[in-house]
């Protein structure tokens, strides 16, 4: 089990990007650092200008994400996972498609540095967020996180 820390700015940015699309999914990448004991999130991206956002999913704008990632790499922070929103009234549980996407992405990472996933939503002006980790590239588990 790894402790997950997210800085308040990144958390606020995710909230803002969720509120902007109340009826559609939005999402992006999580940037930070990790080791076998902890994960620290220092930035989150949007899905990008050419992303396709629907009620049931979001397809990221890959050229936007590539450029965004290159900028973060200059600051020595790395892609450590993804986030996406679920429009109300959907909950925060990963859908079967989410789980399959999480597993596919897990395969791209080293066993000791598997990615994490935030699923968030806004309902009645309250922002909710769950974080999931993947173990051994296949087991999805909800984790606690701390805002710092
Ligand atoms: Zn989802």
From TrEMBL:
GO molecular function list: metal ion binding; metallopeptidase activity
Pfam families attached to this UniProt entry: Prok-JAB
InterPro entries named among the record's database cross-references: JAB_dom_prok
Keyword presence, Hydrolase: yes
Biological process terms in GO annotation: proteolysis
Domain JAB: 23-124
Keywords: Hydrolase, Metal-binding, Metalloprotease, Protease, Zinc
Protein name (database record): Integrative and conjugative element protein, VC0181 family
Organism: Brevibacillus centrosporus
């Amino acid at each position: 089990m790894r402790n997950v820390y997210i800085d308040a700015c990144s958390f606020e940015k995710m909230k803002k990007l969720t509120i902007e699309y109340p009826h559609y999914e939005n999402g992006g990448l999580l940037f930070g650092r990790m080791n076998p004991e902890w994960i620290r999130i220092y930035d989150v991206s949007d899905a990008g200008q050419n992303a396709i956002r629907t009620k049931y999913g979001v397809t990221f704008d890959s050229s936007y994400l590539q450029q965004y990632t290159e900028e973060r790499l200059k600051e020595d922070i790395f892609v450590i996972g993804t986030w996406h929103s679920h429009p109300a009234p959907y909950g925060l549980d990963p859908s079967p498609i989410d789980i399959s996407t999480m597993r596919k992405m897990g395969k791209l990472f080293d066993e000791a540095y598997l990615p994490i996933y935030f699923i968030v939503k806004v309902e009645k002006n309250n922002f909710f967020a769950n974080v999931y980790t993947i173990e051994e590239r296949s087991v999805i588990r909800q984790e606690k996180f701390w805002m710092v």
